[in-house]
Amino acid sequence: MLVGAGRMRIVRRQRPRRLLKIARVPAAGGQGGKETLGAMQLNSKAGWLTPIDPDLGNPTLQAYGSMLSALQDGRFRPESKLPSERTLSGALGVSRTTIRQVLASLARKGMLYTLPNRGWFVSLRTYSEGQNILRSFSLEVLEKGLKPTSRTLVQRVRPATLDEAETLCIPPTAPIIELRRLRGMDNILVGLTIAHLPEQIVPGLETIDLTDKSLFETLRERFNVFPTRCDYQLRADSADDETAELLGIQPGSPVLIGAEITYDQHERPILTGQTIYRGNAYRFRTSLYISESSRPPRGGVD
C-alpha cells in the first residue's frame, strides 16, 4: 500500500508465472546477448522439454522424441490443452512448421487431438502411471520396500553383430558393451538381464562396478544419458539348460522374456537386450484404452 500527496493507491501483486523459463543466449562473437524462450517447465513435478541439439541432426525427429517423452511421462495432463505452437517451437528451438509436423504425427498416433480455433489437446490414453512409466528394475523394487540386488556375470567390450548394429544405429562390428547380470529382490533371484550398449555413448562402462547398482542411474550420473522411453515385447518360453542353471530352476520351466530397445533424451537407441524372468517371480501389468476415434461423444451415446 502506497500513500502520498493525500491519495492512496493499492498495488496488487500478481502471482509470478512459472510456465516458461527465459534463457539468455550469447550473441555471435560473445557480444551482448538476446533473450529467447528456453526449456519449458510444465509443472513443479515434471522435467523440462529437451531443446534440440543441432549437432545431433534431424531437428524434427529430436522435437518429436522430446514431445513423445513428455506425453508418455505424464507431464501433460489428460484432456489438458497444450501450450501454443509458438510457445512449443520456442521451447524446443524449432520452427513453427516443424512443431506442426510433430503435433500432426502425434495426433495420427492417437496421442493428441485438435479442436477448431481452440488448439491441441492431450488424449486420455497418453496418461501413464504405475507400470506404464519407464522405471529401472532397482527403482521398481525400492518402491515395493525391498532391496534390489545385482550380480554381474559378464561385463566386456566386443564387436556388435549385424542385428545389434542395426538396432543401435551403429556401424557393423562397432564396439558395444555387453552386460549380463542376475537380478534379485532381498537376495531372492528373479531374473537374468542381458544388455548391449554402444561403447561410443558410454565409454568405460565396462570398468564400473555395477554390483547392486541401477544401470539407468549409472547412465544418468556418469554419462549424462537419460533413458526416456522403451519399446518392449513380452513372450512366454521355457528355460534352456544354461538359463535354468543360472536361475536355479529346472530345465524346461516356464519363463517370461521381456525384450527391449531403450532410447535416450535425444531419441537415440542406447540399449538393446532382454530380461529372462522366472515364471513364478514376475507379473506384468498394463492399462488398455479404447482409441480416441472409437470413444463415444463426451455428451453420451445417442
Automatic annotation (TrEMBL):
Keywords: DNA-binding, Transcription, Transcription regulation. The keyword Phosphoprotein does not apply. Pfam families: GntR (PF00392), UTRA (PF07702). CDD domains: WHTH_GntR. Residues 57-125 form the HTH gntR-type domain. GO terms for molecular function: DNA binding; DNA-binding transcription factor activity. PANTHER family: MANNOSYL-D-GLYCERATE TRANSPORT/METABOLISM SYSTEM REPRESSOR MNGR-RELATED. PROSITE patterns: HTH_GNTR. Gene3D superfamilies: Chorismate lyase-like, Winged helix-like DNA-binding domain superfamily/Winged helix DNA-binding domain. This is GntR family transcriptional regulator. SMART domains: HTH_GNTR, UTRA. It comes from Rhizobium miluonense.
